[in-house]
Amino acid sequence: MRELPKTKNCILEFDNGWLTIWFNRPEKKNALSDVLLDDIKDTVKSVHDDRSVRGILFRGRGGSFCSGADLDGIKKIASSGENARDLAIDMSKKVGSTLETINKAPQITVSVVEGASMAGGFGFACATDILITKDDARYALTETKIGLTPAQIVPYVLNRLGFAQARRLLLLGSSFDGQEAFNMGMADHIAQNDDGLNNLIDKVKSDVRKCAPNAIAITKRIISENHVIDAQKAAEFFADCVIHEEGREGFASFFEKRKPSWS
Question: Cys-Cys crosslink for 161: which of 122, 165, 237, 262, Cβ 3.0 to 4.6 Å?
Answer without folding.
Answer: 165
